[in-house]
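Researcher: Here's a chain I'd like modeled. Treat it as a single chain, no partners, no ligands.
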Amino acid sequence: MRLSTMSAYNRLPHAPDCDCSVCWSRREMAKPAPSPSTRCAQCRPASARPIRTLQMGCIGGTWKPLVSEWQVEPAYICEKHTPPERPAKWWSVAYQDSTSAPSEQFPF
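Model: Modeled as a single isolated chain. Structure tokens:
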């Protein structure tokens, strides 16, 4: 194929049920990937909002609140998304001292 024919070929639309690697990749990338860091409906971030303004001040010709009373709602992370307090059990085998090695010596 000549270059002009190849570029024309590449611009042809794919069939709706096309199973080529390009269409498959496009479909897979469109799927939402569940991630452990993705929060669920139970998890919520921390929030703070002003309830009442206690003192106003004129800054640059505009009245703005200087001191306010705030309502703070702490974050909530469900049990599923709470990180463990210590590393996984398998991590403890990363360090082995000499007592765990065989004590006999092999001749060379």
